[in-house]
Amino acid sequence: MSSHSAFVYGSPDELVQHALTAHRSPGPLVLGCSPRHNALITAALAPGSDARTLTRPQAGTRPGTAIAVLERLVRECGPVTVLVEPDHGATAAGTTRWRRFEAACNLTLAPRAVTLICAFDGRSTPDAVLAALAESHGHHDDPEAVLDRLAVRAPLVPPPADPVLVVLGSASIDDLGPIRRRVSAALGVLPVLARTDFVAAVNEVLTNAHLHGRPPVDTRLWVSPDFVECRITDRGRGFGDAGAGFRPGAGGGDLRRAGAGLRLTRQTCDDLDTWHTATTFTVRLSSATSSTHDMNHNGAIARVEAAQVRADAALTRAEAARVRAEATRERLAGRIAPPH
Amino acid sequence: MVRISRTDLSGGVVLTTTGALDAATAAAWQFSAAQHDLPPGHALVLDLRETDFIAIAGVRAVVAVADHHDRETVVVLAAGHHLRDWIGLLDPRQRVRVVDRLGHALVLFRQLQP
Asked: Which chain B residues have a beta carbon less than 8 Å from that of A68?
């Protein structure tokens, strides 16, 4: 990464001025600020400027996705300057996610030609956030060390209520589908996207437990109106790498060889924590569930897609009939001379 | 359980998958999809819109099948599916294209024909 800096502004005018200065760098300027600030900056740019906008990174909610969005952007744009106001979370857990996001940016975007500027409103940003800026901006700490500092090491206290699903002693990868279906059914009250995302995350961790851990594998699921949590425990050695799932690939290598499952997991749930005991390795996944936007939006998408599937099935049948008719015509043409 | 049904079209073969494509089923699906003979010059269309579930193991199997057939391959996957980007990330030869409608696949593989 060309640079990753923090800018603390005292007024929207200061933010706009900083954006205009940043736009002198090569490549387009991409804005991921609040909608109001995106509009102010865009209005201040010269007509015809190469500037684009994206949704403000939800670093305090789902850091894995926020990073994936930036990575995709950098892949598509080439050299680029990105000015964002990352959501740093409203709770201690949210702030921890945001700190992971900032450190992980230094891991994943390191080889890319991107100038990343994270802007914070000095009038409203909590002290805990401002105090943590130095660890990942400017002459920042080793991102691996930051992620390691933020990692959970000891078993977390489970949620107070009983789990809604407990599956103990799974010994075969063939259990994957049945467990996944039970998890999906237990999450039936959730918005579609929240459910499918979380099931995808659970599936990848269960897959790792079966393929790389040691059976038996235990699954416990908690669902409350605000959050969902799943703990998957196997008897293997697990891993202690706090950057797992944030890096481009396993060991910083090629995603095509390994590491894709944990990377997907980071993008489909809010938290991925791990810990060891003397005999077990546990992965904890959790997500907030309060997203009415997802519920409405995905219901509409699902309905459109169902209609498309039906239309395309008809298209397939029509095309197949056309091919058969053409073949019949060719066969007949061999037997019957065309009319003169 | 995962199943494949085949439809032969002019210029392409469509393999439609139903069921779940995960670490438990991907190997069998990959073997089965690789067994289908493709006429010379025909593109391969893997229609995954009717699958219940696709995991990273499934995406790897899709890429392996495309590699096995050594053919231009079009994957049909629902718009907005969370694994659309992953196919591009996990395809070393970048020969797998992703579209969201079968009609788009038909147009694409006609364009691919010599």
From this structure: 85
Q: Does B4 touch chain A (CB under 8 A)?
A: no
Both tokens of A205, joined, read: 């961790």
pLDDT in tens, A284-338: 999 998 753 443 343 344 344 444 544 555 555 566 666 667 777 777 776 655 4
Considering only alpha carbons, which residue of chain A is nearest residue B9?
A320
CB-based contact A207 B7, cutoff 8 Å: no
- CATH T-level assignment (fold) for domain A3-150: Rossmann fold (3.40.50)
Contact A260 B80 (CB under 8 A): no
Provide the number of structural domains found in chain B.
Answer: 1
Q: How many CB pairs under 8 A join A and B?
A: 92
Closest CA–CA distance from residue B31 to any residue of chain A (Å):
17
CATH of domain A165-288: 3.30.565.10
B105: CATH = 3.30.750.24
- Residue A164, judged by CB atoms within 10 A of its CB (0-12, 13-18, 19+), counts as middle
Q: A69-103 in b/e burial notation, b at 16+ Cβ within 10 A?
A: bbbebbeebeebbbbbbbbbbeeeebbbbbbbbbb
